[in-house]
Amino acid sequence: MSIQHFAPGQVIDISPYGSDFANAASETLIRESHIEVFRFVLKAGKTTPEHTAAGAITIQCIEGEVELGLGDETRVLKVNNLVYLKANEPHTVKALTDTTLLITILLQRE
């Protein structure tokens, strides 16, 4: 069974979960051969293992606050902040508060 994603031209609501955060879940919104867009939900105190993306990415903070680990450096992303990372750049994400991120990956599949 395949997962249904949003179709081209379909409007997608990316509003913060706010008081409904307890019911929030990560989900892929768009998946095509050249692009992937997903909403990533991370509860306060949780951290992703170090990882890379299959292409250049943007990470936009919709709600909450995260610490983005980039090797020996860290950056804090707050609501309305956006960061760009090159393809295959190792990074971690630690939620300082309950957080929702909008992540876009420009895929480089051959």
TrEMBL record:
Instruction: List the transmembrane segments.
Output: none
List, for all copies, the residue spans of the domain called Cupin type-2.
Answer: 39-102
Q: Which Pfam families match?
A: Cupin_2
InterPro entries for the chain: Cupin_2 (IPR013096), RmlC-like_jellyroll (IPR014710), RmlC_Cupin_sf (IPR011051)
**PANTHER family in alphabetical order:** SLR8022 PROTEIN (PTHR37694)
The name of this protein is Cupin domain-containing protein
Q: Which organism is it from?
A: Methylophilus luteus
Q: What is the lineage of its organism?
A: Bacteria, Pseudomonadati, Pseudomonadota, Betaproteobacteria, Nitrosomonadales
